[in-house]
């Protein structure tokens, strides 16, 4: 009986906190400089993420009310799950630390390759291709379309 109530409450609290964070990001991104009325400026991407966060948080909030009173939510961190979560968090911290030094392209490529391998993607060609495509897409969106420079690092 106790297994479901804390999870429902945690989902509701998390959803509301994420919604508040999204509103904050949306409002703060309004302070970014504009590139004109027709051009999407630096605020476009943070606002897009903020809107997506509100929508996904809404799904989480709604799902917490639809869950049946006796329904349990099982969280299984066995079979190496906890280790993978810890490694993923460590990789995120390493990415943040290395990003200014090595730049966006190299740091993000290394992070994505390592993360996909952590998630058990076994095909090296697929991992490398997917990572390169994501890096190219994000770099192109920021550098070319939005005119927002990304960290160049020591190699550029």
Structural features, described:
It is built from four helices and no strands. It is flat. The mean pLDDT is 84. By secondary structure, it is mainly alpha-helical.
Give the overall average pLDDT: 84
The share of residues in extended strands comes to under 5%
Secondary-structure element series: HHHH
What is the SS-derived class? mainly alpha
Give the overall shape, derived from the CA principal axes: flat
Main sheet record: none
Fraction of residues in helices?
55-70%
- In whole angstroms, the N-to-C terminal distance is 58 Å
Radius of gyration: 19 Å
- What is the β-strand count? 0
Low-confidence stretches: none
**How many alpha or pi helices?**
4
Using brief descriptors, characterize the structure shown.
156 residues, mainly alpha, 69% helix
Briefly characterize the structure.
The chain is mostly helical and 156 residues long. The protein has 4 helices and no strands.
Helix-strand layout with pairing:
Elements: H1 5-29, H2 44-66, H3 81-118, H4 124-145
Helix pairs in contact: 1-2, 3-4
């Amino acid at each position: 009986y106790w297994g479901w109530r804390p999870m429902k409450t945690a989902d509701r609290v998390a959803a509301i906190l994420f919604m508040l964070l999204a509103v904050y990001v949306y409002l703060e991104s309004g302070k970014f400089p504009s590139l004109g009325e027709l051009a999407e400026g630096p605020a476009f991407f943070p606002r897009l993420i903020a809107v997506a966060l509100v929508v996904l948080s809404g799904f989480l909030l709604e799902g917490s009310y639809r869950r049946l009173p006796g329904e349990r939510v099982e969280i299984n961190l066995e079979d190496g799950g906890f280790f993978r979560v810890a490694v993923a968090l460590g990789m995120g911290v390493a990415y943040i630390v290395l990003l200014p030094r090595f730049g966006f392209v190299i740091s993000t490529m290394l992070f994505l390759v390592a993360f996909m391998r952590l998630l058990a993607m076994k095909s090296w060609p697929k991992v490398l291709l997917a990572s390169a495509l994501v890096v190219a897409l994000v770099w192109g969106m920021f550098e070319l379309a939005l005119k927002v420079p990304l960290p160049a690092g020591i190699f550029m």
